[in-house]
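Data card: per-record layout.
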Amino acid sequence: IAQTVFSSGPTNAQPGLFYVGAVMAGGKTAQQGEAALLAQVARLRDAPPTAAELAEAKTGLLADAVRRREEIDGRAFAIGYALLTDGDAARANTNLADLQAVTAADVQRVAKKWLADDRRTSIRYLPESARPAGETDNTPVPPKVASVKFDGAITTLAPEAERQKIPAVAAPIAAVLPSPVEKTLANGLRVIVAKSSDLPLITADLTVRGGASADPAGLAGASSLTADLLTEGTKTRGAVDIARQTEALGANLAAGSGWEASSLTLSVIADKAAPAMAIMADVAQNPVFKAEELGRVRAETLDGLSVAYQRPGSLAAYAVAPVLYAGSAYGHVAGGTPGSLPKIKRDDLVKLHSAAWRPDNAVLVLTGNLTPEAGFALAETAFGGWKKPASAPPALPAAPTGYKPRNVVIDLPGTGQAAVTLAKPTITRADPNYYSGLVTNAVLGVGYSSRLNQEIRIKRGLSYGAGSSLTPQGQFGGFSARVQTKNESAGQVVGLVQAELTRLAAEPASASELTARKSVLVGGFGRDLGTSEGLADILGNLAVYGVPLNEIQSYAAKVEAVSASDVQAFAKSMMDPAQTSIIVAGDLKAMGDTLPAAVPNATVIPAARLDLDSPTLTSGK
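The structure for this 621-residue chain is written out next.
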């Protein structure tokens, strides 16, 4: 009856809130959700959890804590949290043991005390159409608080010369980068192993070539649904079995699909890796795509789209691929649309899975606290029996061609903001200007101090954030600049983005600006390398795009080697504002008279008539 169910316990030193909640599925009511939630709360009060439930909860909490402690900021947070809530930073070293000592009786005791019905507040978030006739918003206006004169002690800083000196910056510590090792199993599965941590955690990432670009004509979202349904039942395990068994191992198992690849990712405590990978292998090889599971996942996806179609940012994002890559295998919405998803049948998923999910079309990356020998042994045990078909793996579709800029305005009456996107095709991952592109995009729109954010948010206050992205892939690549702003300032924002693109090509970036933006790129890459999941994702992408794995050792040097002239040249050749398509979604009436000049010759489409499966983007109804 729910699309999402969640709960949270207080983690403050001071009194906090425990809450449970649900986002209801289509056709289900808030009353149904509240009744179901309260029944589970009562169940926890009335009887202690079973031994299996308690063990599963502890294992999951422990695994999550270890994942957070992979990251340096996660370790810092654990220390600071222990200091502020327990008064002792050293508790960071013992609180996981305290967690393991909790008993079933402890859980029931706390539930009885703090989850009593007389302590409860219920909140129902409903559409405006559900408001009873004649009812008005009677939220009281908070009273004005009179100012109070402070009469406490005042601390005055000592003069600069008398303060303790800041310690000098120490010499840089040389980075110790992972060294991936690989082998190919007899069935053609490429296996890559790299140690990333001394923490007891392992990530297994299985990536297959083939994603949304393989969607059959008119069935946008088929590859995405195929990936989503991998974990929803196999020949020997039902969807609930898969969820319970992975959670009991403290494992996270998730699937996803991009344009050119799909993946299945497992994160698990090291000593549970073997049984968890057995489940992973079963899910990858033996999904059954039950009709009822397809119907449920499709309904949940359509529910999500019904919400997303009321948001200008989502509408603008969905329109990018149909505008830039029209007429190609890439010219549709990767996750599907309200028109395409109901047409997808079980047989479509079976065909897509059979074509792409095969060992000689896949890469398995294992990272964490393990040796190459241990990783290869895990891979052989879990995936060595995966049979390779006699036919050749499918080739990727042809790259999109024939791009022409196109301007589109999606009219969403009543929305409070407008989303502005400027986009165009750019380089592939194999392009020799890849690193120049990364740095150029970072100067323009990556991070708080990037040019777009400086000009649009910081200087003019027209948005909470402005940014850009460069997405080079195997067969194609894209660039987009994105801003959400007031409807009235949409036209002005289009001009500001165009001006920054023009300036980027007209004058070289300063040395200090380049240093700062390169630091953002190198720092972000380093943080990704520092976690088993981040490293697995990086290595999987390199393998799928045919890039040597030692690229992780040379990434920083290649970023640092990009010059101001390289940035200027890339901007001039690949980010010409005259070649961008402009997509604006918002309340057309509120956007005013400045929009037509900023977005000339635009196709105006009422949101109610938007059809992202049509070449014209409109249903014509």
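Known properties of this structure: The chain has 21 helices and 14 strands. The chain has a mean pLDDT of 94.

See the next section for split statistics.
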